[in-house]
Every structure is written in structure tokens, then in C-alpha cells.
Amino acid sequence: MAALAPLPPLPAQFKSIQHHLRTAQEHDKRDPVVAYYCRLYAMQTGMKIDSKTPECRKFLSKLMDQLEALKKQLGDNEAVTQEIVGCAHLENYALKMFLYADNEDRAGRFHKNMIKSFYTASLLIDVITVFGELTDENVKHRKYARWKAAYIHNCLKNGETPQAGPVGIEEDNDVEETEDVGATSLPTQPPQPSSSSAYDPSNLAPGSYSGIQIPPGAHAPANTPAEVPHSTGVTSNAVQPSPQTVPAIDPDMYTTSQGDIRLTPEDYARAQKYCKYAGSALQYEDVGTAVQNLQKALRLLTTGRE
User: Fold this and answer.
1) CATH class of this structure's domain 265-303
2) Among the CATH numbers 1.25.40.270, 3.20.20.370, 3.30.70.120, 3.30.70.100, which is that of 83-158?
3) Where is the Vta1 C-terminal domain (predicted)?
4) Could you name the CATH architecture of 12-81?
5) pTM > 0.85: yes or no
């Protein structure tokens, strides 16, 4: 992909989007679709913050140039031309990062890459808002990921051993972004798991992330975005993909006649969405998720119900 023209210095008013723009730069070669939507989110957010100050207008103008250049380069990519595909791509990517970090956390493997993966996952969930409001599950994942990144970062910084796995979250804690991972305001000791606000990602209902069903705690493939870079100097066990259990196919779905079933345009749109989610899951070789979403599409088309 051709290099993009550099942006002018970031105005102080746009501090809240600096990490989203950095994530975009990091993904220019790794995943241009993610880079595109990170910039789109930064553009939309920046317009809401300040579109009148000269330095802000200049910055947003250059950012718009980058977006137009990217859109031209990705003109034949469905993840850019079709919002349903783009949303599925971004959600799958964010969830894979989240699961990688969550697995490392549960296994007690605390290192800079897993902290960054937690925090980047939370930033990408921010970006999903370009497609509309977040689901409750998305909101919970974002808060948990950002909190975990801050908590583990602070523990390692202070020479303390983090508590592995799900812990309670204090509702009134705001995460402040820093240059390292993006947070320093959280307490170095988390509330005890018995807290009424305890949050366990594995307790989320099936269908989290807008219908993408991935077994909680499942290992992300070794080639996920969160793969440990050699330059970190951190020793960490490689995350290997765990054996996948492919969901059984319900034979009744093959024999159901459409009969008098009348599908609405919304039904067709939802069925298309599940098929797009399945295609996106296959990009990560996640057969179980692909089959589950295809089953949901088939059930909707044959019975008119989900």
C-alpha cells in the first residue's frame, strides 16, 4: 500500500484521539481496513470536538486527505464499500485481540504485548461506533479491557504481581490515557472478585459482539494481530490455536420448506449479516464461529425466526 502523506502536529484539543490515530498507523500495513476505520473514527470525533479553530481545521483537512487516499486504494474491498462487512471485520479483529489478552491474563502471563492488546481492543471498540451505537456486550468488553490494561500496567510498573483473571471493577474509576498503555489513574490493587461489580468475560451470553459467537476463553490463532513482536524483549509462550469443536448441523434446517413463510427486507438483511460474519470468521480460520453464524442465517431463511 502506498505511503500516506504525514499529518501536521496533533492539536491539543484532539488528545483523546491520539491513540486511535497511532493504532491506525500501526495497522497501515498489517490491516489497512482497520487503519481506515480508525482514521474515520478520529475524523468524526475530531469534527465534533473542534472544526473551527484554524489548526484543527488544517489537521482535519489532512486527515480527510488520508481517508480519501485509503478509500481509493481499498476501493475493491467489501469491508470498506459495505458497512455490514466492515463492521464484522472490525468486531472480529477487536474480539480476537481481546481473547488473546484475556487468555494470557488468565494464564498469568503478564507482559507488555498483552497489556497493549487489551488496550488496543478497547480502542477498536471505540471505532465500532462509526457503524452505530455499541451493544451492551461491546460496552462491557471495552470497559473491562481498558481497566485490565491499566491495572496490569500499574502492577508491573510498581513491581507487584497482578491478579490473574476476572476481577471487580470500580464503577467510578475513569481510565486516563498515557503514552505507555494509556492508563495510570486506576488503583494498583483491584477490588476482590466477590464484589458485586465483578465482571467475567466468560459469563457473557452467546451472541456477544452482535451475533459473533466465539467460545469464551478460546485461544486466538497464533497469527492474530496481538502476536508478540520480536523487538519487545519479552519472553512469552506462543499462543497456539486450540482444537476447534465444530457445532453439529441441525438436519431439520435442510428439510424445512419455506411454504407460507414471508420474509421481510429486515430478515434478508439480518441473514446477509450472519453470512458476512461467517465469512469474516473464516478469515481467522474460526470454523466454529462461521458454522454458528451460517446456521443462524439458514434458520432465519427457512423458518422466519432466529
Assistant:
1) mainly alpha
2) 1.25.40.270
3) 265-302
4) Alpha Horseshoe (1.25)
5) no
